[in-house]
User: Which sequence fits this backbone?
């Protein structure tokens, strides 16, 4: 007699398993949706540098350079104009980024969980057959494309005539570059950084969607904390993967656990960019949420760099003691930093 598959209390929905952590097998659904959009199923996608859109350094570099041209040029165009409200467009923008992040996160979990459970964490972060499978490459590429969608965040800033800060502008461009280098470099550890980032983005974009609706939410500070925790975990995995790769390749007499999939330039790019994020976001957190006014002088330079408005080359309007703390929803305010003052936070993950 056949045994019926376990079902949940909701009736027809199957119980979660290792292969179907959400009860329903998501990949076949995504596969069909992908085919309706691009004309072929996701199972047939292949990332080919030079043929796949935005797959070369030249293409990525031009897009990022164009982004900076648009935001700084747009700031000048808006200089003598009234700011736009754009509330409806901003609500839509935050909602679809929340939805995209949540969908990608669920698909990543479905792909990674069985690998980690059955083959171990090291296999998942250092072996190509663990962290660089064809379905994962599809998700890596789609996540990379979302970084260009997120560049619209800064467009809302200049259209609303909000300050453009170093931290905000640097983070946007650097994140697109980071995702490109890891995609080209085939780093199996990429899924760790991406899934953590998607988790933060689900929380962050949902917060700003609700905030734009006028709903007050108490856990705003926790978004910044999650960002910092994210970077600590990211760097732990990236440093480990890089260490075991370089030692096993060049200095096998040093302690290591074997080789790790990925290109060397991608390892250096990941270490450099993620480390800069950690320092900038920590300094931002202390400047924004800690009010004692007594911080080590070594932290002040980084804090000023991450928070100061970018200088205006046409009018010489550099930061003069005011910290313009930009957020992706364009609701940041420029206020003088005082020992008992507060400041808004950046909404970048």
Assistant:
């Amino acid at each position: 007699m056949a045994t019926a598959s376990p079902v949940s209390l909701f009736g027809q929905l199957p119980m979660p398993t290792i292969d179907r952590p959400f009860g329903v097998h998501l990949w076949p659904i995504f596969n069909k949706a992908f085919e309706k959009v691009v004309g072929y199923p996701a199972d047939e996608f292949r990332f080919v540098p030079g043929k796949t859109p935005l797959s070369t350094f030249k293409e990525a570099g031009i897009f990022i350079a164009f982004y900076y041209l648009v935001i700084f040029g747009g700031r000048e165009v808006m200089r003598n104009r009234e700011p736009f409200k754009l509330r409806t467009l901003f609500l839509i923008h935050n909602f679809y980024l929340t939805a995209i992040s949540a969908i990608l996160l669920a698909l990543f979990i479905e792909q990674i969980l069985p690998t980690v459970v059955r083959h171990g964490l090291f296999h998942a972060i250092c072996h190509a057959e663990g962290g660089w499978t064809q379905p994962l490459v599809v998700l890596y590429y789609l996540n990379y494309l979302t970084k260009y969608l997120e560049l619209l965040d800064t467009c809302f800033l200049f259209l609303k005539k909000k300050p453009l800060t170093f931290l905000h502008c640097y983070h946007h461009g650097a994140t697109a570059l980071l995702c490109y280098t890891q995609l080209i470099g085939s780093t199996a550890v990429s899924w760790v950084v991406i899934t953590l980032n998607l988790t933060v983005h689900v929380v962050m974009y949902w917060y700003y969607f609700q905030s734009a609706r006028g709903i007050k939410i108490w856990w705003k500070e926790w978004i910044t904390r999650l960002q910092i925790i994210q970077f600590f975990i990211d760097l732990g995995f990236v440093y480990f993967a890089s260490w075991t790769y370089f030692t096993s390749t060049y200095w096998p007499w040093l302690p290591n656990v074997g080789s790790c999939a990925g290109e060397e330039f991608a390892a250096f790019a990941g270490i450099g960019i993620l480390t800069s994020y950690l320092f900038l976001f920590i300094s931002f957190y202390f400047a924004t949420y800690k009010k004692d006014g007594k911080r080590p002088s070594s932290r002040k330079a980084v804090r000023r760099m991450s928070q100061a408005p970018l200088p205006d080359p046409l009018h010489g309007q550099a930061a003069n003691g005011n910290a313009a703390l930009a957020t992706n929803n364009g609701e940041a305010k420029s206020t003088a930093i005082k020992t008992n003052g507060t400041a808004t936070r950046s909404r970048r993950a």
